[in-house]
TrEMBL record, chains A, B:
Residues in Phenol hydroxylase-like C-terminal dimerisation domain copies: 411-619
Family membership noted in the UniProt record: Belongs to the PheA/TfdB FAD monooxygenase family.
Keyword ATP-binding set for record: no
Gene Ontology MF terms: FAD binding; oxidoreductase activity, acting on paired donors, with incorporation or reduction of molecular oxygen, NAD(P)H as one donor, and incorporation of one atom of oxygen
Matching Gene3D superfamilies: 3.40.30.20, D-Amino Acid Oxidase, subunit A, domain 2 (3.30.9.10), FAD/NAD(P)-binding domain (3.50.50.60)
Alphabetical list of SUPFAM superfamilies matching this protein: FAD-linked reductases, C-terminal domain, FAD/NAD(P)-binding domain, Thioredoxin-like
Cross-referenced PANTHER family: P-HYDROXYBENZOATE-M-HYDROXYLASE, TRK SYSTEM POTASSIUM UPTAKE PROTEIN
Annotated keywords: FAD, Flavoprotein, Oxidoreductase
Entry annotated with the keyword Flavoprotein: yes
Domain FAD-binding: residue ranges: 6-362
Domain of life assignment: Eukaryota
Name of this protein: Phenol 2-monooxygenase
Amino acid sequence: MAVENYDVVIVGAGPVGLMLSTCLARWGYKIKHIDNRPEPTATGRADGIQPRSLDLLRNMGLKRKIMAHDPAKVYEVAFWDPNSKGIHRTGTWASCPKFIDARYPFTTLLHQGLIERVFIEDIEKNGVQVQRPWTITGFKNDGKDPTYPVQVSISHVDDTHSETVRTKYLFSGEGARSFVRDQLGVKIKYKDPISHVWGVMDGVVRTNFPDIKMKCTIHSDAGSIMVIPRENNMVRLYIQVASSTDKDWDPRKTFTVEEVQEHAKQVLRPYTISWDRIEWYSVYPIGQGIAERYTLDERVFMGGDACHTHSPKAGQGMNTAFLDAVNLAWKIHHVESGFANRSILSTYESERKLIAETLLDFDARYAKLFSARIPSAGEVAGASSAQNPAEENEFVKTFKASCEFTSGYGVAYLPNTVNWGAEHPAQHPLFLNYQKGTSLRTGRILTPATVTRVVDANVVHLEQQIPLNGSYRMYIMAGEPSKTSAPIKDFATHISNPTSFYSIFAHKDTSVDRYHELHNPHNDFISVCTVFNAKRADIHIDEMLPPVFARYRDHVFADDVWDQRVPDAKAAAHAKMGLSEEDGGVVIVRPDGYVGAVVKLEGGAGTCEALNKYFSVITGKRLGEERAAL
Amino acid sequence: MAVENYDVVIVGAGPVGLMLSTCLARWGYKIKHIDNRPEPTATGRADGIQPRSLDLLRNMGLKRKIMAHDPAKVYEVAFWDPNSKGIHRTGTWASCPKFIDARYPFTTLLHQGLIERVFIEDIEKNGVQVQRPWTITGFKNDGKDPTYPVQVSISHVDDTHSETVRTKYLFSGEGARSFVRDQLGVKIKYKDPISHVWGVMDGVVRTNFPDIKMKCTIHSDAGSIMVIPRENNMVRLYIQVASSTDKDWDPRKTFTVEEVQEHAKQVLRPYTISWDRIEWYSVYPIGQGIAERYTLDERVFMGGDACHTHSPKAGQGMNTAFLDAVNLAWKIHHVESGFANRSILSTYESERKLIAETLLDFDARYAKLFSARIPSAGEVAGASSAQNPAEENEFVKTFKASCEFTSGYGVAYLPNTVNWGAEHPAQHPLFLNYQKGTSLRTGRILTPATVTRVVDANVVHLEQQIPLNGSYRMYIMAGEPSKTSAPIKDFATHISNPTSFYSIFAHKDTSVDRYHELHNPHNDFISVCTVFNAKRADIHIDEMLPPVFARYRDHVFADDVWDQRVPDAKAAAHAKMGLSEEDGGVVIVRPDGYVGAVVKLEGGAGTCEALNKYFSVITGKRLGEERAAL
């Protein structure tokens, strides 16, 4: 029997596997996706979607479907501490405070199953079915077929059927107990030697506890509980039932529902609580571990819980999984479609492992903040109002740094091939960085900005105008038209050179009708937006832009919407990015929304030259005028 | 055979019939709904949802389903006039300018069929099926059964089956050709003697006309066209193909698709246009007519196009239909559920006919503005920037007034039984009006305001917190807690009197478990919100509110969100309603969102007394302390 070949074999249909499958299925890859559970998650499990993840889901056109389930939204966290009567609230603070420039400054709570279904519908539309209940039984990167170097064996969980396939990539999204990781011999490094057993319970309650619809951390003399509001009028209670620091530590220790309910009643006194129904209940051990490698050969990859496990307290699990998957998806896509050098695949581990390490460090600090130290009322009030930064103490500062991280906006990838930096092989005087010419930082998310679309006068979110289509996003922040008219013309001339980073990947098949193509009229790897510092009605696309940019009619914007964060700016988007409102600049954003490079917009060949150099490193091609002159 | 009895028989499943059916089905009424078309609208027809209608759809929980179709959004209108080269743009202006405080300052464009389907799904969930293709063949209010006084005969359009039923109410949403209206002998009064024949065409085009994604009015030497962007990359072109002022006027005059396309090509020169596909095309005559009566007996009612016809230019048809239906729905509900006096039914005609008359007047003026007079560039620039009100001319002023009307926010019902006014039978010194103590006007929509919900710290839209549940909305704008603590306590004491407007309708069946009931814990006719001028974290519901108001835990808000419209206010919601930020006030809002009465919040019995008087008039009951003393 002929062995079937796939682009990717994905093991596990939890958040990380589904996100990878969704991206690659949309971009046309042939996928074998298996999961060892007979059905998708029915209740419970992960539930917190952080602000940054909501941006990502919106960018994929999936946010509305998530929101259709009417999830709970957490804007603030309340802290309760013991007092003589039982417990009292010592303070509250924003879960995503105003100093973070977030579109959606809240955590969205919805059970994992509902979220999974949104992804499953999407991959099915693109012809991928999750094969259930099937499991992986073996694999090897034997290179027998250079195109499909990895052989994978899978079988039905009851062992009645089995298949052997070949693939370009194998991905393990199997969760903490990963067969692939075990087979590779990749060790888990335990950051914090302390393990915990957690009980978690979703249900509908009756209580006079006033903060039952807030996220709460409750410390009482009877123990601690974390409260998380849920969709459908439910509430989740997290309770740490055992710790490896306990004298009688037993990682298999368990509690009945009734015991946890009784425990909750004790903790909440003087308030009362009772349950109308319990939807889900589980007890599970958690260790703070991180895989030493995410891949050994850049053919077999792992992500999500297979690579990092930690407490559920900060609601980071699913979010980290999503970002693992997206990070890998576009890199595989760029390599397989011939855009990028295979070496960019190494940045998956270096970027995502750093985030996992930061997450585990944070998780340890977070646990310490909540468990070991009870903030006083005065300290918390300082965090809540934050009107006088001078009054902030160490506790508040730590909290603030944590907020940025937990919201997902703290992710900061280090300079590497795709994130320009002072040590990047591409060097050119026009590169800008946050110390010179821009406040944007490579490896961090593009600053959100509200602008007016010229063609239809719609007020829109600039950062959402290019969907997650696998393309780099080139934002020409075009400053004042009178100042930048010549530089933009020059830039257009140079990128139209057939060897430029923009033109070298031009669509080969020119017979395809691309009239209605909004995002990729010229090539599949770069989508362009232009933003003028001008009033919408004063922008005449065909008169003010060379044809190569004017072609992106739906991506021309007026930077004319006032923003409370930069109240004195005439062009708020320019100002928020720290670019000259007169002279603008060119911002290259990776397909996953992180800034790759920022270049000055200047007359002559320089702007294009700098970008040719940057993309030469990524693509491994010699780009630009030099070669044209050969 | 026994004749089946219904609460309402609805004829016609267009926007007006479906909206009525949706409201009444949700509120538990037994409905017979017929339509003479075999299928719902497949393409074309009405398509513009105005800002106010979007508020209403959101209030019904239907907005997200409408938006899931990715409708086009019109933020601005562009004006094109003839010049030597063909046409040129003379200016643009906002379709819902900033001076209107709208949540959604745009028109939403989506074909009627997609909108209808959202309603049809909703009524089906409530057990109502539209019976198709069936038509009405006769009816009479013979009173033979006092509970179901109207007999209605209906039959399949091919006459194979027929039924006779009895009903409390018969509603005609049949459109311009109304059998019911004809049978009643109600005349159409033609406001403007001029009739027109319109051609309308939906399709996907290729053009270099720069404003193809804007709403445009184009005058050229070759004729005039109106451009409306649509969902799915389509565009609608409206073209007036004949007018009764023409020498060769023929109301049956028609044009082929090709003729209209050729016409469009001429009008758009020097720009080019061609069509990839045509989705819908129609030619139809329009007269500006209004029915002399909307009901003769307050048992048989009409609404929507059966009562008013006009040009499609301002996109008002469906919106007026929606508001006709909602207006009637809650009044029927209040009468049939024993809350209101039957006399409130007369306000349906008086309120909605006034709006139709305003619409027709406006339509005539609008047509004149667009057809008879071409604005000069200078005038349009004035409207567009509007930075110096002193420079505004008559044209701009007319436009501005029109914007308020076309957005749906211009609706202003006159004082009557439900809209308090100086002549209202209920008189009490504590009533406030826009000349004294508030900027709210009875008969107009409640001012939108953003506030923070206390229980979960969610930032929410106050005006949306009570859904369209058929209840009056009582907003206790509670000012500063230190100032209003005593008045609120007194108010609670007096409305807890069994004969008060609030308590007299208390749920009879106290055995029902209403623990999770958010909106109607005490009665079915009034839902309460309380808004404090305080920071969220400083509001302790159980300590600061008497139990009757504290019971609405999910409806207690902090007026602590800054608003650009009242930048210096501490409590923006209070300020926008023109109420004292210290002393607050009580705002009664009708079930459809229009202000009914505003009363001062004062210590003692006065606040409750004033509202007892107001609701005595509506309910026909003697409410309040007097009776309790009997």
